[in-house]
Amino acid sequence: MTIKGNLKLGGNQPVLFSGPCAVESLDICLEIGSTIKKIAEKYGFGPLFKASFDKANRSSSDSYRGIGFEKSLQVLQTVGNMLNVPIMTDVHESYQVDALADVADVLQIPAFLCRQTYLLIAAGKTGEAIKIKRGQFMAP
Question: Which of 73, 108, 109, 140 has the least CB density, counted as fewest CB within 10 Å?
Fold first, then answer.
């Protein structure tokens, strides 16, 4: 599947999926994204910027989760456009899929949600690339 910047997923060129754990600010994401792009290009990898719009899977409800849905989407879209790199973020709920698919080139299903049928179906219907993280609780 070919995505933004003519990056082919599943092709011969390796892809560097990298970025901060969570979207914190535009400045931080642009700095990290620029560095990722330079490193990827230097070593012949395709760059792909990955940051979570919401760190919902935390062990404590008091843990930092991010800057919010709308602000995170704006940051991710700006990073993708300014750096001309594909974007990946995770999705947690079926109702989030369409808004995220408008911004992200790859939707990631977190390991804890890898068996959520409605979420997987909704993500698949977008036509975007989907990365499903396999939960450690599942057989290989």
Answer: 140
